[in-house]
Write a structure and sequence with these properties.
Blueprint: H1 14-18, H2 22-29, H3 33-47, H4 54-61, H5 65-72, H6 75-97, H7 103-120, H8 122-130, H9 132-140, H10 145-162, H11 166-169, H12 173-188, H13 190-193, H14 200-210
């Protein structure tokens, strides 16, 4: 008799596990090298501060647009996976930077580091400036898997560091996670949402107040 070993969830995996997509499953399977090649090229393009253009990407890969769409889906699907692939190491780095903290302090620390990294990543800000409407749609709504993955990650952090009855059972973990994500989005994309200046410092204050962290 064989047994299935379930991997322990981590900050790097919990989001995609909670909200997989057709493309994420193709990439994870390792059975679609052409999809991986197209994804890697698109990721390098975004990191390089350039627009991911499907016609140009297909040309660079030596195929037609039909083949590219068959490999990775449409542009929004590809962009969503590229953006989340860049969020993962950012979340891991934020968790590492907050490793000496506990409870609400740790959750607030991780989310603050994450917001700060998004605000200061020039390639990411370039993407936001180039395509503000698309960016907000993909990053802050259920139009793509990104927000669902971020909420799932925040929910995992809340349950891990605050338990199943956070803040004295005043709120459900899932509801608290959603509030934290909306706060994160508000301060990260303040320039696009309200014309204000993005601020990790103000996000930190909001996270700590919400999590009832003293000081």
């Amino acid at each position: 008799m064989s047994s299935t070993v379930t991997a322990t969830p981590t900050i790097a995996t919990v989001g995609t596990d909670a909200a997989p997509s057709w493309l994420s499953e193709r990439l994870a399977s390792g059975a679609h090298p052409d999809a991986q090649r197209a994804f890697d090229a698109a990721r390098a393009t975004l990191i390089g501060g350039r627009r991911i253009d499907m016609t140009a990407l297909a040309g660079a890969l030596g195929v037609d647009r039909t083949s590219l769409f068959r490999w990775v889906g449409n542009r929004d699907a590809l962009l969503s996976e590229v953006l989340w692939s860049l969020a993962i190491p950012t979340l891991v780095q934020a968790e590492h930077a907050s490793s000496g903290l506990e409870g609400g302090e740790r959750v607030a620390g991780i989310l603050t580091h994450f917001v700060d990294d998004l605000i200061t990543a020039e390639y990411f800000r370039s993407f936001l400036r180039r395509e503000p409407a698309r960016a907000l749609r993909l990053l802050t709504t259920k139009e793509s898997p990104i927000q669902r993955r971020y909420v799932a990650t925040a929910d995992w952090l809340v349950r891990r560091d605050l338990g199943e009855a956070p803040l004295g059972a005043a709120i459900a973990p899932a509801d608290l996670a959603y509030i934290l994500v909306r706060l994160s989005e508000s301060f990260t994309y303040a320039d696009l949402i309200s014309g204000d200046t993005p601020s990790a410092d103000r996000a930190r204050v909001a996270f700590r107040l919400t999590l009832r962290v003293d000081g």
